[in-house]
Amino acid sequence: MGRLTAIVLGAAAGGAFPQWNCRCPVCALAWRGDPRVRPRTQASLAVSAGNGQWTIINASPDLGQQLRATPALHPQDGLRGSPIDAVVLTGAEIDQIAGLLSLREGTRFKLFATPASHAAVAANAMFDAMTAMTRHAIAPGERFTLAGGIEATLFTVPGKVPLYLEGDDPALAEESAANVGIELARGGARLVFVPGAAAVSAAMRERFAGADAILFDGTLFTDDEMQRTGVGQKTGRRMGHMPIDGADGSLKVLEDVAARRIFIHINNTNPIHIAGSPERAQVERAGWEIAEDGMEIVL
Questions:
Q1: pLDDT tens, position by position, 27-55
Q2: Domains plus CATH for the chain?
Q3: Which of 59, 168, 256, 295 has the greatest number of CB atoms lying within 10 Å of its CB?
């Protein structure tokens, strides 16, 4: 194990891939068992410094399944216990917090999140059952330490509040504590995780320039993907996600970033799920990788 190890627990956007109720062209391939596509659970990451303790970044609704599929996260000894020391939230969307309920059986862990995300969790009485979870509010820009001496920093990312908190006219690309990324550092190794971004700010570009690897929002290939496939009326930007393709898409905006670049939080409609597709080939020619469940990143 290196100075910093990350395991992709889930690589898909909300709803996972294939989505349980969807037969869009990409999901239809998965339901048929086409070998060009691989099922993915909802986006989550586990990180460790090699001391046997792990931090989960975002608790997806699939967390129980993800833990069972990841031997490093299994109980190691004793009657009850877990190598999970903490969970960090980059937002309070349903696909970022619902998995907390999979950790409700009395083993202690810490929850780190911005005050905005903590408020969203606290407003739901269901999470009152999490009596062994201690809550720690972290302001964007504040450095805090995770198990194994991993230094972590949450930073604002252009985006929006969770869907269930939207008003009639939500701000779609403002920077606030409701939507953040996280930088993880140990022994000179740096990893940046941004599962949702409506745009890339100058401050984000500076942070990426110092990273060894970035996992970045790959929700939609084109901004109108949901509309063209007939499964939704919203554009990617309306949902708070910049597209991969286009003059202001992430391929173009981040083309000069030298770090290892990996797309994560990939929507079920996105054709980059398909090995050998033109869209997948375009992404790979640009030097990007596609996150898969179980992918291990060692820095």
A1: 999 999 999 999 999 999 999 999 999 99
A2: 5-291 (3.60.15.10)
A3: 59
